[in-house]
Amino acid sequence: MKSKSFYLLSLGCSKNTVDSTSMAELLQRAGYQPTEKAAQASVLIVNTCGFIQPARDESIRELRALARRKRNGQILIAAGCLTQRYREWVLQQVPGIDGIMGTRRWMDILDVIEKVRQSPPQPVYHIPEDGIIGRDEKGVLRAAVQGSSAYLKIADGCRRPCAFCAIPLIKGTLVSRPAETIVQEAKQLERQGVQELILIAQDTTDYGHDLGIRDGLPALLDDLLKATSIPWIRILYAFPGYVTDRLIEMMASNPRVLHYLDMPLQHAHPDTLKRMRRPANVEWVYRTLEKMRSAMPDLAIRSTFIVGYPGETEEEFQTLLDFLQTVQLDRVGAFTFSFETGTASEPLGDPIPAEVKQERLERLMKLQEKISLRRNQTFIGKRMEVLVEGFDRNLTIGRSYRDAPEIDGLVFVEGQAPLGSIVPVQISGALPHDLTAVPIGE
């Protein structure tokens, strides 16, 4: 075991991955060496996820495993979303934790390690009651590079009132990062060879609101387009009602801004949406989808839905199925409702039986699988560009503009192409989630 080495396990979403990457950069600046083997590290860190119960279970499981195997001289630090909300409970569940820090002060990782080293054998707390994410980022890159793609965090926290969501309790309200900082980081990522820049936040369409900037996302995109030549820029997590005409025009008129939008809608029945405290104007959704598709006929739209929300009747669920049949989305993720204490939905309880939730989930995904297959089949014979990510025997594995990493499909291309390159292909076959293709010579 090296005296200045660390093992960092990052759980949960890409936004957590960015925080983990930033912590790792601070550690390496201070002379710590990363290792992929926990037994070789002097510092063990788990950046937890606490969004829903399965994520909490995974976080506790991983912390317990490290605590059981912890050796003399090793310290274990629990960080992130779970500890931000449930620090006392985490300590009860996992004896052997030496330090606890939340998600709002990730930049204090070195201070926590120093305090733990100096303290008697009592867990060190470092969760200040700050209302917002810390702005003192210490000059580290707020991005996570994966191959030729990079998640770049443009904001953190959220000011939306969604009844089912614990994110504002965990992260605090919206904190947008300065545009000039984001642009400088994008330039740095371009110098590193990044081909795809993925803009992330809890709600990218709310970027700049706290800075007094109206419709800030299109303005930020304009800055990024002028300052870099990264060929692909992808937008995740748009909020219904805030996809503006300016954003649509920006996407339609700049081919480097991918014709892809992830817009979590959560449901399609107005009454369900009202109980969720979500935008309930479903007509806006229909109009905006029509407007976007008119401006970008090749637009790929991804959305997310919750089934089994308290009070969801069979009629309300059928409205959701009818909506999916009508709008024909390219990609859909769906989840059963997860009861969360402390959220605005807590008084509604969790009245719908688990088996009913699961049955509805399966019906929705079965319907969407057919829709996704039909959408994919429309691309057979067409030319597309694919970002090459790997190989399997004599197949190139990549993604098209329609495929965000980790959540969407893949394109399997005959032969081999250079890793990290964007290559033209002709689509030869379609599956519900993936496409097959043959290369095209330029």
Give the CA-CA distance, first to last residue: 52 Å
Count of distinct strands: 20
Integer-rounded radius of gyration: 22 Å
Count of separate DSSP helical elements = 12
Task: Walk across the major sheet and give the strand order.
Answer: 7-8-11-12-13-14-15
Report on this structure.
The chain is an alpha/beta fold. The chain has helices at residues 14-29, 53-69, 81-93, 109-118, 167-171, 179-191, 216-227, 245-253, 270-276, 282-295, 314-327, 354-377, and strands at residues 5-10, 33-34, 43-48, 75-80, 99-101, 124-126, 143-146, 149-153, 155-156, 175-176, 196-200, 232-235, 257-262, 300-307, 331-336, 383-392, 395-399, 411-414, 422-430, 435-439. The strands form 4 sheets. It has a 7-stranded mixed beta sheet. The protein has a 6-stranded parallel beta sheet with strand order 2-1-3-4-5-6, with helices on both faces. The longest helix has 24 residues, at 354-377. The termini are far apart. The model has no long low-confidence stretch (mean pLDDT 93).
Task: Describe what is shown at a glance.
With 442 residues, the protein is of the alpha/beta class. The chain has helices spanning 14-29, 53-69, 81-93, 109-118, 167-171, 179-191, 216-227, 245-253, 270-276, 282-295, 314-327, 354-377; strands at residues 5-10, 33-34, 43-48, 75-80, 99-101, 124-126, 143-146, 149-153, 155-156, 175-176, 196-200, 232-235, 257-262, 300-307, 331-336, 383-392, 395-399, 411-414, 422-430, 435-439.
